[in-house]
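Holo prediction — tryptophan.
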Amino acid sequence: MDQPPASAARLRVLSGIQPTGRFHWGNYFGAIRQYIELQDAGDAFYFIADLHALTTVRDPERLRGFVRDAALDLLALGLDPERATLFVQSDVPEVTELTWLLMTVAPMGLLERCHAYKDKKARGLPADTGLFTYPVLMAADILAYDADVVPVGEDQVQHIEVCRDLAGTFNHLYGEVFRLPKPRLVEGGAKVPGTDGQKMSKSYENTIEVFEDLAAQKKKIMRITTDSRPMEDPKDPESDHLYQLYALLAAEPDVAAMAALYRQGGFGYGQVKKALVEATATYFAQARQRRAELAADPQVIDTVLAAGAERARAAAGAVLDRARQACGLGRRAVGARA
Ligand code: ADP
Ligand code: TRP
């Protein structure tokens, strides 16, 4: 039997991102920016997790739109299809078959402890088996590509542990089929605050989307909540969410000047908001332009995703074959040895 390639010269990096809405600053600064930086750390595989999104997006046209937008956004933000493989999860049916194989070694108790399902249940909401087995699909996503490192946010680390658990059990039963991946907590992925100061998240309706038009962005920025301390008071910049956003988007000397202004006092939050509007326009100007160019030629996305799917299927097919043979599927002659 083919063994998983022992530590290949190049690190295999893999991550997925769900197309459940348009990407916001939290997604970008918390995850996407680091994924894109890692495309040079090894062989990178990045995919748009539309099968996972099916557990929340129930409108087919919206889902298709989100997938396309996700691909456009990622390319515009710097993902380079020459250096990384970009594909759509559901274009690789090998992964769903692998999910079943892993499901046969996935204890109920392990999945019951996973937070997506547990949280929903704790809130008394109905959960479907798609949500319950979500971590098994995620494990298949990772194992199918012999991933070494999986860059993720803090919230996904538990799922990588589940993946390692399932791979370990499968390997224990059937031989060394899967390579065990490691999570890589994204650096600089600290919590990005939303317009209300809580963590920016679609579920809190406090997001600013990366590519929404500048007028809409400006409106949201002007409505960012602020405290009512007198203008003259000196303020601690680090503890203010408006400043935290500015610090992500503005050029370094401007950030330092803003911090000094906070400490000195005698400024209005309106002034900071205006500066933030300008900073975001500049920060994403190039990406906006690239996105407009890409969107003007719909063929580009199709070509990139088709090429990505082909490469991904070749990788996943080899792993699936290993797994099938190992557990007794497929018709190898009785007594034949690899
Ligand atoms: P949402 O909370 O809006 O539904 P997702 O859960 O789809 O966002 O986020 C995808 C990834 O983006 C997360 O795994 C996390 O790494 C990152 N992320 C999302 N929101 C933030 C945030 N406010 N700060 C930092 N990272 C974030
Ligand atoms: N569950 C991840 C999220 O919500 C997305 C995802 C799906 C993923 N499959 C993956 C991330 C495999 C890393 C590896 O963010």
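READOUT: The chain has a mean pLDDT of 93.
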